[in-house]
């Protein structure tokens, strides 16, 4: 434990009589405290450049310069220049990256040289603002200095030393930025970036922004770290690799041990295009070396990925990693004959499912008495992984080796890790793909480009490789590698091309055969590509692209499919990808129109396509899915199991995981698991009156409840219960039972908040304001990108400021204080763009500014103007000149809240639904029904579900048999009277200063205390039962 006095002294600057030497001494004591694994730090070290300059403190690859007090960089120019000289001298002497820290004990500023320049730049800062932050300072320094050893790699330590909030990440990412600027115009680097772009857009749709370098650099950093960790886990000396970092990137040590396809030159070896790149890799090796990787768990790479790529980015990518206990349970249920079945995870991510599949096979092999060599050879031909995400593939390959563990040291042949980078969806291959050749078009359509240009680059040729006779993909890989390596020797486009004959002959390709000619033509193209500096990546790209095609040929399909498909939402797909998604979905009867398109995602189609392409007839599957797959309307076609003309999917069991605790251990939305079988449907057999194969979902689902155990599935399943209940699913032909559905409307899209909602401002001077005009300032938005914008300020005519009701201004039986918004509405009509521009100049000025901001920050998919978005589907104009009495209710939430409005000038926003009422009694009748707890209970079967339970009410309320109000019906009158009583109680309830959620609770408590809730619930229950409860 560090002495509190030492940390306190460091946190206090400018103390009279305290010298730089005193601070320097305290810092040395801090560094020698045992927290950094250091021998005594060297103080007052000579720079070693022939001058008498001395460095205050030298630690590893860091120099620390101590000053008495630091206030700002502007006031520390001379200090920074002094530190710059030290860093440049040490960098030159050591030939590696060097850190510089400038500190006064309280302020800690980290500097490093920018690649391609001779100057340092500040990369990270830490302020020891109080003695209570001593541990935070230790963590910051540990990450920067990287001097400790034998740290156990856990989620916490990896995040501290390598994660996106660590100074190490800030420094390394910034260094990569400078390095990339140095080489970004190199044709080979451009090619690697372009192919990476092509794959990522296929995986992520519009949530992937290829104009930003940040993700490419993060992926580069992750792959280098993963490569270093992969070597360390296998016991390979990182110190030896630091001497020649290119060996690590190429995976030479693995190949020397006859282990292939683990670490190899890929999109991210661009870093070797500059000499500073080798320094960077060496520095990463130093950072990774602080951990004791012999103590690692197999999911450590997943932790690394999640510590660098933040949760928001992963959500946009549809990336939700599966916890180990669940993956293990799915593998146990699907891989029933581990020594016979061939298993594929078509979206393997970091390799969690692959790991557990391998371990299951190895356990069975041990029980069967198989020797090590036989078991390892068997696994390579029986457990496969595919993923379109290049970083995931690198992580999964290392995970594959972790699953093999100590068996790698036993008697074995060469190991070829069958985890490949590829498009499992095969977007541009037909369903019955049986081509004899793999074709990769360097000028081919970017699968998901939302841009008008059709290609990434153009050479007007296609790379083609024979595929039909490839029984062993490893042989194919070696052929492709030999061809591309040979092509790399061709650098002059006017010279004669190298002779391919020896290579084709060594692989047994018959001379002058069709395959011979195909390969010769492809080789010539590869030579031409290399001559213009665009060949080096094609071997890697082609070798990976062939595996999905190879696995999809009928005689090579697998017995079991497992995994967690990408949850990429339709609304995040590019326009071209949406068209392809729609075409694929329509062909497989999965498309349900644009009405539910915004709720659709890739999950159902991905599972269907994977079953279609990779699973043989009678094969089984087990996939993690969103819980919505079990019930929501957008998955209706998927649930039928009628997935094509001759393909049927039979889901034999479905798990509802919503009640597994803790909730945050799974995914951001409730999840499910489906298990099933593939059946091929022969129409000839059906014509002969044979029974068609089973298809669709079971009537019941298994509700899984209990607490998971992180130790694994064996421990977890003991604490879980599996209760069968009827699975209530929505269908498109399920009619609304209430006539009120036809008079229901959703509120208007008054969005974003910062462009519409305002608060009145008092004049800041003595001039006041003219009658009918008001000073306003808009309210900040809560969501990006709008939340980062400054509010609008201006003068607006008061007649254009309207009361607006939202979900947050609605409580049971009582509207709360409405919000105020600037809206272009006059005399109960929405103004046109021309009327706004030609009308009141103050409104026109406000609207011009708001529209300009809208056009700048609206989503790339949106083609609507601000006015068109406001009146989307005429949701504003439908409210003009309407009924005096309206009923509004919340569109989402845990408990439905409804209130009555009696001012037709008030606007209803889209977080509310509204209905016109013919009288105040009818309005109270409807409000009473909607607020009855029985309605929330009954409608929950229809609702989508979030992490905290049911959430969207939408129009589902009106699937219940709620009859039209009838003044002669005594029960109807009774409900209306109860509604009137409830309004009185709600109006008298004190809620001043309460947020809307608390206000709702206080009112509900008051109603319950008055025993009105119980009476109301009984009356509404009777109403529903008399009219045909569902």
TrEMBL record:
Q: Which residues form the Type II methyltransferase M.TaqI-like domain?
A: 382-639
Check the record and name the InterPro entries matching this protein: DNA_methylase_N6_adenine_CS, MethylTrfase_TaqI-like_dom, N4_N6_ade-DNA_methylase, SAM-dependent_MTases_sf
Q: Name one GO biological process term.
A: methylation
Report the GO molecular function annotations: DNA binding; N-methyltransferase activity; site-specific DNA-methyltransferase (adenine-specific) activity
Q: Does the keyword Methyltransferase apply?
A: yes
Which EC main class describes this enzyme?
Answer: transferase
Would the keyword Transferase turn up in this protein's UniProt record? yes
Supply the name of the protein: site-specific DNA-methyltransferase (adenine-specific)
Organism, scientific name: Corynebacterium glutamicum (Brevibacterium saccharolyticum)
């Amino acid at each position: 434990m560090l002495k509190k006095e030492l940390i306190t002294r460091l946190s206090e600057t400018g103390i009279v009589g305290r010298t730089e030497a005193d601070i320097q001494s305290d810092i040395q004591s801090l560094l020698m405290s045992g927290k950094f694994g250091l021998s005594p730090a060297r103080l007052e070290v000579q720079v070693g450049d022939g001058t008498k300059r001395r460095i205050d403190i030298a630690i590893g690859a860091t120099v620390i310069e101590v000053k008495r007090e630091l206030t700002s960089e502007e006031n520390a120019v001379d200090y920074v220049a002094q530190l710059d000289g030290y860093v440049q001298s040490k960098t030159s002497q050591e030939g590696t990256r060097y850190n510089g820290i400038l500190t006064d004990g309280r302020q800690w500023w980290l500097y490093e040289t920018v690649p391609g320049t001779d100057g340092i730049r500040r990369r990270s800062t830490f302020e020891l603002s109080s003695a209570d932050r001593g541990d935070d300072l230790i963590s910051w320094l540990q990450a920067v200095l990287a001097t400790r050893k034998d740290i156990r790699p856990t989620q916490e330590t990896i995040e501290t030393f390598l994660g996106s909030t660590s100074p190490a990440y800030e420094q390394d990412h910034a260094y990569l930025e400078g390095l990339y600027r140095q080489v970004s115009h190199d044709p080979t680097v451009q090619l690697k970036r372009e192919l990476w772009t092509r794959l990522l857009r296929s995986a992520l749709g519009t949530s992937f922004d290829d104009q930003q370098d940040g993700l490419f650099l993060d992926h580069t950093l992750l792959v280098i770290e993963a490569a270093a960790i992969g070597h360390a886990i296998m016991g390979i000396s990182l110190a030896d690799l630091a001497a020649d970092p290119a060996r690590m990137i190429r995976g030479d040590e693995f190949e020397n041990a006859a282990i292939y396809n683990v670490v190899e030159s890929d999109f991210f070896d661009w870093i070797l295009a500059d000499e500073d790149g080798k320094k960077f890799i060496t520095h990463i090796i130093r950072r990774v070396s602080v951990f004791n990787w012999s103590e690692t768990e197999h999911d450590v790479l997943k932790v690394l990925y999640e510590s660098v790529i933040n949760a928001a980015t992963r959500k946009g990518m549809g990336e939700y990693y599966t916890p180990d206990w669940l993956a293990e349970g799915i593998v146990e249920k699907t891989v029933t004959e581990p020594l016979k079945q061939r298993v594929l995870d078509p979206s393997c991510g970091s390799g969690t499912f692959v790991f557990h599949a391998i371990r299951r096979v190895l356990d069975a092999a041990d029980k069967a008495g198989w020797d090590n060599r036989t078991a390892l050879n068997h696994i390579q031909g029986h457990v496969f992984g595919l993923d379109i995400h290049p970083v995931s593939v690198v992580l999964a390959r290392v995970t594959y080796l972790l699953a093999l563990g100590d068996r790698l040291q036993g008697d074995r042949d060469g190991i070829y890790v069958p985890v490949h980078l590829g498009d499992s969806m095969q977007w541009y291959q037909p369903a019955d793909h049986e081509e004899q050749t793999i074709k990769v078009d360097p000028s081919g359509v970017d699968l998901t480009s939302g841009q008008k240009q059709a290609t990434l680059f153009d050479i007007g040729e296609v790379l083609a490789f024979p595929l039909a006779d490839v029984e062993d993909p490893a042989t194919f890989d070696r052929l492709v590698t030999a061809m591309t390596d040979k092509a790399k020797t061709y650098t002059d486009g006017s010279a004669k091309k190298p002779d391919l004959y020896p290579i084709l002959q060594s692989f047994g390709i018959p001379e002058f055969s069709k395959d011979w000619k195909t390969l010769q033509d492809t080789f010539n193209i590869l030579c031409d590509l290399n001559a213009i500096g665009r060949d080096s990546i094609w071997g890697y790209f082609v070798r990976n692209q062939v595996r999905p095609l190879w696995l999809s040929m009928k005689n090579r399909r697998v017995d079991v499919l497992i995994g967690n498909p990408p949850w990429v939402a339709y609304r995040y797909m590019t326009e071209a990808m949406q068209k392809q998604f729609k075409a694929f979905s329509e062909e497989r009867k999965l498309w349900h129109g644009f009405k539910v398109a915004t709720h659709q995602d890739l999950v159902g189609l991905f599972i269907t396509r994977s079953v279609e392409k990779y699973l043989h007839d009678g094969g089984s599957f087990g996939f993690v899915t969103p819980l919505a797959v079990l019930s929501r309307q957008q998955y209706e076609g998927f649930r039928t199991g009628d997935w094509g003309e001759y393909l049927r999917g039979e889901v034999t069991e479905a798990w509802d995981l919503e009640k597994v605790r803790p909730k945050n251990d799974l995914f951001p939305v409730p999840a499910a698991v489906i298990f099933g079988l593939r059946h091929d449907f022969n129409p000839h057999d059906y014509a002969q009156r044979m029974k068609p194969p089973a298809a669709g979902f079971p009537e019941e689902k298994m509700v899984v409840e209990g607490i998971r155990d992180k130790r694994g599935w064996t421990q977890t399943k003991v604490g879980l219960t599996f209760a069968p209940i009827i699975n209530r699913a929505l269908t498109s032909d399920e009619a609304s039972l209430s006539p009120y559905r036809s008079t229901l409307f959703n509120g208007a899209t008054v969005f974003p908040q910062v462009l519409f909602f305002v608060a009145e401002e008092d004049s800041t001077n003595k001039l006041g304001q003219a009658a009918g005009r008001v000073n306003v300032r808009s309210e900040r938005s809560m969501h990006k990108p709008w939340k980062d914008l400054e509010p609008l300020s201006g003068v607006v005519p008061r007649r254009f400021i309207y009361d607006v009701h939202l979900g947050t201004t609605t409580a049971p039986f009582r509207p709360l204080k409405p919000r105020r918004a600037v809206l272009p509405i006059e005399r109960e009509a929405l103004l046109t763009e021309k009327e706004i521009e030609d009308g009141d100049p103050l409104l026109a000025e406000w609207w011009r500014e708001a529209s300009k901001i809208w056009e700048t920050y609206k989503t790339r998919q949106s083609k609507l103007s601000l006015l068109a978005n406001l009146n989307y589907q005429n949701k504003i104009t439908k409210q003009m000149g309407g009924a005096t009495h309206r009923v509004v209710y919340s569109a989402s939430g845990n408990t439905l809240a409804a209130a009555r409005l009696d001012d037709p000038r008030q606007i209803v926003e889209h977080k509310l639904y509204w209905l016109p009422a013919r009288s105040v009694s009818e309005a109270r009748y409807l409000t009473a029904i909607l607020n009855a707890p029985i309605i929330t209970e009954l409608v929950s079967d229809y609702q989508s579900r979030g992490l905290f339970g049911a959430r969207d009410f939408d129009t589902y309320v009106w699937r219940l048999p709620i009859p039209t109000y009838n003044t002669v019906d005594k029960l109807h009158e009774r409900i209306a009277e109860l509604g009137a009583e409830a309004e009185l109680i709600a109006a008298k309830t004190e809620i001043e200063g309460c947020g809307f959620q608390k206000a709702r609770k206080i009112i509900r408590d008051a109603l319950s205390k008055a025993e009105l809730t119980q009476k109301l619930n009984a009356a509404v229950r009777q109403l529903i039962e008399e009219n045909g409860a569902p």
